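Much of the work behind modern protein science is quiet bookkeeping, done one molecule at a time. The protein below has been through that process, and both of its lines are reproduced in full.


***
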Amino acid sequence: MAAKFPLFGDEAALDDAGARVDGWLAGIEDRAARARALSGLVAELTATASNADRSITITVDSSGLLSGVTMDDAVRRHSGQWIAQEVLATTRKAVARLADRIGGAVDETVGRDSPEGRAVTALFQARVTGGSDGR
């Protein structure tokens, strides 16, 4: 007669517990794989925007940092202040496009409502707003 261990219960209970642990591990491994896929997608993202007259084009990298600025000769007829304002406004457009692309990458890998998706979205928002909530 097999001895029963009150701490663990019977064999069926042990098998059920083992199956639950196996399921949890599989779920964790799946989430980790999807998080790695998201990380790879996001790392490769860039976004580009141009101002209304297309005289200024801005590209930002996956962190929202400037990675390219082009200006055509049409900007010479404008003041430095106008150019500065256009660069800033166009950079904001590029960052907004990047946020959309990051959202798309989140949707196709881990889902926007998953803990990982919320974390990536919040991290990007904190990066581009300097850690403030924009208020």
